[in-house]
């Protein structure tokens, strides 16, 4: 990587045994020593609103926003304590959060990002950037088309509006909301590895230009495109 490249390092929040949690906390010492001054943010938990789908947590009746917030604050505090000991110069490094897959709780996404902040997610003043995830659709879903899903500016505007609404509603919480940028910490065309013949087409490339320029026009300061297999 070029000199000066900054990194965000993600920690595993999904694994939920005592041993797994301790291993995650202990790994912070290795991570901070390896990344050093190139560290930009930490991230604790990727798409926790989908943990139930992978069997990492129970459904919303047993694991609500309050439960998530309590667990997140405990985990990030433990990570900070390890970093303070192993890499004191990186103490107080902020976190990127909450990195939810959805914009609201429903039958599939079990946590609401606005409710998480309302329940004091930033109680420790440890969040340096607010991250949300977005895909235009799911590759395995019915009705996904190049023209209707990607090469469709009306759809681009509508999907961006969902994210902008989350940003505005978090900001409206006042002192419970950190005064930091709202970004798309992960996004691309179609979730679940895309669809060959659709997300690897020239039309999908045009969508990428349209989508990212529209985000910039709406003051979304950063957008991280999920990279992976060659048809993403």
TrEMBL record:
The organism's place on the tree of life at top rank: Eukaryota
Protein name stated in the entry: Glycoside hydrolase family 79 protein
Native organism: Aureobasidium uvarum
Xref: SUPFAM superfamilies: (Trans)glycosidases (SSF51445)
